[in-house]
Amino acid sequence: MFEVVIIMYFDLKKTIFLNYLSYYSLLKDYLKVYVQSWCYRIEDKQKRKEILSYLNEYQENFIIENDYIDYISRNLKVMNENELNKIMDKIDELNEKTLLYYDSILHQYEVDMTLGMTRGIMPKKDFLPFNQNEQLYDEIIGLTLSKKDLYRYYENVEDFNYVIAKTTFLDIDTEKGMAFFGCYPKIEKGIITDIKIYVPEIYNLKSMLINIHEFNHGLLLYLYINKEYPNFDFEKYAKEEETKFIKSYVKQIKMS
């Protein structure tokens, strides 16, 4: 395990280094086009502002991507290797799309200058870049979540100890275990007498959200122990709790 962590650590550092090479190359090209715009027939100041604006956007995405990779490198020991590889594939794909997008914008300005046009059709952004992709941020944070975070989230909920005592954590992939996960009430003659919860071990955001979802069911059903099964939408409350967890807990974890 230690050897794997070391190898992955240096791979991440190599990725950051390559990102810097790409960044400085594109930065040089943007600045070259900006300077050339004063010499060609692009006289509109707004056009030059646009060039710098796109450059600033690219810089912002570059900084965010490197922050993600740096955060991952500092937390490798607690991350699931398979899940980390999936996240790194997403980062690599997004890096490539981002670089191609801002490079194609620059190319369009070069064509404008050569032909003396005001501006051609700018490339369409058909993806969410790093500075807009909140889901990717959440998933990266999710790689560091564990039972400690589950306990911390519910530390002020009085009934949590009862619910956790009724819980079995299954060491199974979330996709394969969806048929098993759930909160199951024991009902005798229409009365809830007990509950049993089955959830996955926590190793990413999805597994944590399944825990949050089922614990919400459990905490609500606990209120009806020795009572009739209630007639209301459990799923609605569970989904709302998932959203609350992301906003009030995941989003509060800083990468720096």
Task: Provide the descriptors you would attach to this structure in a database record.
256 residues, mainly alpha, 2 domains, three-stranded mixed beta sheet, elongated
Question: Could you characterize the architecture of this molecule?
Answer:
- The structure is a single chain.
- The protein has a three-stranded mixed β-sheet.
- Helix content is 62%, strand content 8%.
- The chain has two domains: 141 residues; 106 residues, no CATH class.
- Strand 2 and strand 3 form a beta hairpin.
- By secondary structure, the chain is mainly alpha-helical.
- Helix 2 packs antiparallel against helix 3 and helix 8 crosses helix 9.
- The protein contains nine helices and three strands; from the N terminus they run ααααααβαββαα.
- The two termini are 25 Å apart.
